[in-house]
Amino acid sequence: MAGNSSSPGATVASRVLAILGAFDEHHRRLTLTELAARAGLPVPTADRLVGELAAWGALVRTPAGDYVVGRRMWDLGLLAPVQTGLRELASPYLHDLYGATLATVHLAVRDGAEVLYVDRLAGHASVPVVSSVGSRLPMHATGVGKVLLAHAPASVRTEVLANLTRVTPYTVTQPGLLRRQLATVLRHDHATTTEEMSLGACSIAVPVRSGDGVVASLGIVVPSLKDRARLIGALHVAARGIGRALSASGRD
Q1: The domain that contains 42 carries what CATH number?
Q2: Boundaries of each HTH iclR-type domain copy (predicted)?
């Protein structure tokens, strides 16, 4: 259960964090009772803390009576280095890539065993895209994720390979096949997927390098991979530009 802090001796800070941690991509609106249950807190305790969080602006009570994350949390999140550094420096190159491809463009980093989408530009083509800025998706089912997984520590790859879930009928869930795909990513310096995350959508992604390693992944979502060579070339040009900007800024 998200943010469980029902253990004896839990601090006020841990209880507040448990309430905030009760929200996720699938739980964007929660009633007080649901917040208390997901945070592992008695309802009266949750009520008091939620009231303080709402007064500060971290939570907002909707007309229906449930709670959503407040604008104050968004403002705070924008101060995180992944926002103020990588996203800011990469923005011009993402727009150049979008202009060259008219495809949906993704900039992502690894967050544990998941992909965290740092930025996204929506493309012209009518292609189903499930990502959004701030969302997390499984690494094994996305192009940007396969790039990041191929360059991740061995312990992360072991964890992901042990927990392969099926998102669509085309998602790779065989550990041996995924290992071979990751080896191909390292050999050819790009990754592709075909309807593994959403039906009707393909993706191509490349690593963004700065300093001594891969710090992010840059990808696009397209209806098909028929123009693969041109798209990979455009991705590498943009990724190299982002890497140079990061190195020059000292923010890698």
Answers
A1: 1.10.10.10
A2: 10-71
pLDDT digits (tens, 9 = 90+) for 140-175: 999 999 999 999 999 999 999 999 999 999 999 999
Quick check: is 7 in a domain? Answer: no
What is the span of the domain harbouring residue 61? 12-71
Residues 61-68: contacts with CB under 8 Å, at least 24 apart: 62/29, 65/31, 66/29, 66/30, 66/31, 66/32, 66/34, 67/29, 67/30, 67/31, 67/32, 67/35, 68/23, 68/28, 68/29
